[in-house]
């Protein structure tokens, strides 16, 4: 087949799990014999786009659709640009991948194509921040079923940022797309209903989309085991013979559960010594002395930490859509201790994996 993939947030080198997943999906589809082209939309200035794209490091056809200042506030025009570029390539089907609120406009522009929608986080059911996480626990609401509740929640939580007159990229797009309006809800329902398939990462997401799409398919993410496999050497030079627990990723994000890990470390320190907890933060977090900031690391730096650590910990408190950190650590040969939430509970089989 000739497959077009449209992604409005793609960056390479990657800034998150969505880019990594899409990168390997496109590579995999091409290995299966399909002809695939990625249409990445955005702006070249870093203040608006999520990140840059080093085309020389992308091993498949990629067409960058630049949204200049004159079109950034016009969702319909952005959707038109995407449609025109894809039409010129004449694909058999279209996959709409990651995007904030513009994703709905783009999806509706391709309603007459065989189309699939890929949801990496809880976009579509949580306009507040795509996390479905409120007041320190999973949120029970769903924008598809309770649009008024979710609109109020989003506006209340973002009111200060909106009033500042200097909203970040996410809120700017929320305002540009008028995602606070009832019309946006209608457009969302229309786009999801028009897709042949909605692809999600875990059963929680599947339940939220059930009844709104003709078909909801659960496809978890994955990791490149060849690239991640390493010779594990616990007790390396930096560990001074101690047992090392490692937490990677955005540890400054409260939903990632650093507080849970600090509490666990404090309890353990009262019972035994001879261990440290390493976290990929630039600044030393407040809390127990056994928790050490080792700085933000690139992929190669993370591999070095995997070599030195004994156990990887993924203490998330939100319903992780997938849990790439856990899979990558396993692929590198580390046992994983993870919260029983979201996609993580599908990755770690207690006492087995």
Instruction: Kindly state the number of beta strands.
Output: 14
Strand order of the largest sheet: 3-2-1-4-5-8-9
- Give the mean pLDDT: 91
Q: Report helical residue fraction.
A: 25-40%
Shape label: globular
Radius of gyration: 21 Å
Unreliable parts: none
Descriptors for this entry?
353 residues, alpha/beta, five-stranded parallel beta sheet, 35% helix, globular
Q: What this model shows, in words?
A:
By secondary structure, the chain is an alpha/beta fold. Helix content is 35%, strand content 16%. It contains twelve helices and 14 strands. The chain has helices at residues 17-31, 75-89, 102-109, 147-164, 169-176, 182-194, 203-209, 225-228, 258-269, 299-308, 324-331, 344-347; strands at 2-7, 35-42, 62-66, 93-96, 115-118, 133-134, 137-138, 197-200, 216-218, 243-247, 275-279, 291-293, 311-314, 336-338. Strands 3-2-1-4-5-8-9 form a seven-stranded parallel sheet, sandwiched between helices. Helix 9 (258-269) links the parallel strand 10 (243-247) and strand 11 (275-279). Helix 3 (102-109) packs across helix 6. The longest helix has 18 residues, at 147-164. It is globular and about 60 Å long.
Topology:
Layout: E1 2-7, H1 17-31, E2 35-42, E3 62-66, H2 75-89, E4 93-96, H3 102-109, E5 115-118, E6 133-134, E7 137-138, H4 147-164, H5 169-176, H6 182-194, E8 197-200, H7 203-209, E9 216-218, H8 225-228, E10 243-247, H9 258-269, E11 275-279, E12 291-293, H10 299-308, E13 311-314, H11 324-331, E14 336-338, H12 344-347
Parallel strand pairs: 1-2, 1-4, 2-3, 4-5, 5-8, 8-9, 10-11, 10-13, 11-12, 13-14
Antiparallel strand pairs: 6-7
Helix pairs in contact: 2-3, 3-6
């Amino acid at each position: 087949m000739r497959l077009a993939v449209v992604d409005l947030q793609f960056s390479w080198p990657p800034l998150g799990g969505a880019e990594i997943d899409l990168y390997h999906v496109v590579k995999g589809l091409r290995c299966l014999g399909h002809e695939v082209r990625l249409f990445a939309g955005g702006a070249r200035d870093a203040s608006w786009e999520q990140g840059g794209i080093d085309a020389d490091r992308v091993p498949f056809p990629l067409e960058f659709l630049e949204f200049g200042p004159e079109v950034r506030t016009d969702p319909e025009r952005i959707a038109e640009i995407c449609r025109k570029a894809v039409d010129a390539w004449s694909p058999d089907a279209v996959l709409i991948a990651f995007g904030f609120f513009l994703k709905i406009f783009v999806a509706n522009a391709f309603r007459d194509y065989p189309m699939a929608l890929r949801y990496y986080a809880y976009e579509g059911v949580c306009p507040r921040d795509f996390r479905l996480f409120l007041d320190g626990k999973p949120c029970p609401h769903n924008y598809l079923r309770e649009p008024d509740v979710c609109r109020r929640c989003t506006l209340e939580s973002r009111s200060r940022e909106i009033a500042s007159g200097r909203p970040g990229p996410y809120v700017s797009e929320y305002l540009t797309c008028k995602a606070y309006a009832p019309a946006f809800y209608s457009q969302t329902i229309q786009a999801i209903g028009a897709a042949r398939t909605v692809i999600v990462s875990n059963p929680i997401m599947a339940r939220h989309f059930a009844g709104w799409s003709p078909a909801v398919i659960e496809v978890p993410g994955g990791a490149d085991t060849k690239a991640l496999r390493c010779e594990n050497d616990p007790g390396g030079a930096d560990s001074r013979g101690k047992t090392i627990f490692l937490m990677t990723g955005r540890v400054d994000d409260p939903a990632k559960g650093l507080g849970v890990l600090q509490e666990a470390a404090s309890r353990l320190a009262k019972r035994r010594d001879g261990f440290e907890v390493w976290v990929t933060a630039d600044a030393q977090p407040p809390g127990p002395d056994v928790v050490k900031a080792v700085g933000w690391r690139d992929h190669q730096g993370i591999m070095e930490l995997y070599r030195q650590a004994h156990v990887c910990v993924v203490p998330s408190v939100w319903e992780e859509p997938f849990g790439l950190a856990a899979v990558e650590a396993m692929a590198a040969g580390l046992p994983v201790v993870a919260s029983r939430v979201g996609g993580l509970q599908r990755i770690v089989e207690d006492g087995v994996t």
